[in-house]
Specification:
single chain; alpha/beta; 6-stranded mixed sheet; elongated; Purple Acid Phosphatase, chain A, domain 2; Barnase, Chain D; 19 strands
Length: 462
């Protein structure tokens, strides 16, 4: 039986939000995984599928963090096999990197394809004297390394498949370390390795140890991505992350148990809608009430790290942004929760700019146009209660104009709609005072045309 740990994206040295404590978070996760899961389980080896470091140029503290964990594994006789990721790969004009230095010093085996010649990938066996190689045999497993291929991952898979076909050993359990995005696993439209291309390797390797994407996913019980050990930003706070403890039977059957039982910094994102708040104090009180009701309070007596919390202000703000005391809100939120850090983002829209806010990108042009015109009209308190009715009138007038109807018919339409007394209408004098003139409607139409153009342009860019 073979037993190993598969982890990736350790990102040692990562510093976020200008907090020294965040750099320590990545070390604590790395060290805790070794002490809780590598050593007690007496694994045969540990795989690191790229991005061991957060950047190729590391500082002394990061080097010490790496050594602290690697030395524990070395003392326990547990070999570590790694590949470079996009964050820690060597510079294109240099043969040197910290990953290669740690490998040369004997702390892990850095696997790399030997060369690309005449449209082929060359894979060479590990040479202990030069401490270089593309694959290594450990405890019944043959482990292959690969490069960070970026946007060329799809074309690289064909070359890699040919090389694996010539170097795999059917008697051994064949493993491939691969640092790449995989289609269908991202929330953003960037090039990724297609599942179809990845499956070209299915007949050649028994386990694909993926890295790069900072969330856990699995494909067909064969390709596994554990995610990053620690969240690199609050945008990843909902993603499941950890490592795999893998056991392989004599029949090469894989049992991969996902593990996330180790120290991780908790994150939380809160939202408060400022719409309708009369003054800054109402917003302040509402934010603090949301924090008291929803935020994770840190238990000072617990070993668990204090949370990092992001608070987003959304909606329509009825006064100037400058009147909000964000610093005071942040300080009081920290006092309430004991959080390590609180980020307060004002993403609200001042009411004077609140035109068609909140519409989805797939909202129809007709509805987007109607909403823009209604919001423009509603800025004038005299017409606020009739904004929807007047927006419909503007659009009807527009249709008449685009249909080359004579000006007299357009004027008749406007006068007819405005003369209709809605339920609960005021007396004629008041009604006449509140009704907008044809000139005012024309100005609204011109403003609406400009606003519609901007909104539709933004929607198409989205």
């Amino acid at each position: 039986m073979i037993k190993f740990l598969h982890l990736s994206d350790v990102h040692l040295g990562c510093r976020r939000y200008n907090l020294d404590e965040r750099t320590k978070d990545f070390f604590r996760s790395w060290h805790d995984v070794i002490e809780r899961h590598a050593l007690p389980n007496s694994v045969d080896f540990v795989l690191i599928a790229g991005d061991f470091f957060d950047r190729r140029n590391i500082d002394p503290q990061t080097m010490n963090h790496a050594l602290a964990g690697l030395q524990l594994l070395k003392d326990a006789g547990i070999p570590v096999v790694a590949i470079e990721g996009n964050h820690d790969r060597r510079d294109a004009v240099s043969d040197y990197s910290w990953m290669r230095s740690f490998s040369q010093a004997g702390f892990f085996y850095l696997l790399e394809p030997a060369s690309y010649e005449e449209g082929r990938v060359e894979l060479s066996a590990w040479d202990e004297e030069t401490r270089r190689g593309s694959y290594i045999d450990i405890k019944g497993a043959r482990i292959f390394g690969s490069h960070w291929y970026g946007t060329s991952a799809n074309s690289a898979m064909t070359l890699l498949s040919d090389a694996l076909r010539d170097t795999r050993d059917e008697k051994l359990f064949n493993v491939l370390l691969l640092h790449t995005d995989v289609e269908g696993q991202l929330n953003r439209p960037i090039p990724a390795l297609s599942v179809e291309k990845l499956k070209e390797l299915r007949a050649l390797v028994d386990y694909v140890a993926l890295g790069h994407t900072h969330k856990r996913f699995e494909l067909d019980g064969w390709a596994f991505n554990p995610g990053s050990l620690e969240a690199c930003s609050i945008d990843e706070y909902r993603e499941e992350r950890g490592l795999y403890l893998v056991e392989v039977g004599d029949d090469k059957k894989v049992s991969a148990r996902f593990v996330n039982d180790y120290v991780q910094r908790p994150f939380q994102r809160l939202t408060f809608d400022v719409s309708g708040a009369e003054d800054p104090e109402v917003v302040h009180a509402g934010v603090l009430e949301t924090v008291r009701r929803e935020a994770r309070a840190h238990d000072a007596d617990s070993d668990r790290p204090a949370p990092i919390i992001e608070i987003n202000l959304r909606g329509h703000l009825g006064f100037k942004n400058s009147l909000l005391n964000l610093r005071r809100m942040r300080e009081e939120a920290i006092a309430e929760t004991g959080a390590l850090h609180v980020m307060l983002k004002n993403q609200s829209v001042p009411v004077e700019y609140a035109v068609a806010a909140g519409l989805d990108a797939d909202t129809s042009r007709k509805e987007r146009e109607r909403r823009i015109i209604a919001d423009l009209i509603a800025r004038d308190n005299r017409f606020r209660d009739r904004a929807d009715e007047m927006a419909a009138l503007v659009l009807d007038a527009k249709e008449f104009a685009l249909g080359d109807r004579p000006p007299e018919e357009i004027l008749e339409l406007i006068e007819k709609k405005l003369s209709a007394r809605p339920e609960g209408a005021r007396d004629s004098a008041t009604e006449q005072e509140a009704a907008p003139s044809s000139a005012a409607l024309g100005a609204l139409e011109r403003n609406a045309q400009q606003a519609v153009g901007g909104q539709l342009s933004a929607a198409s860019n989205d």
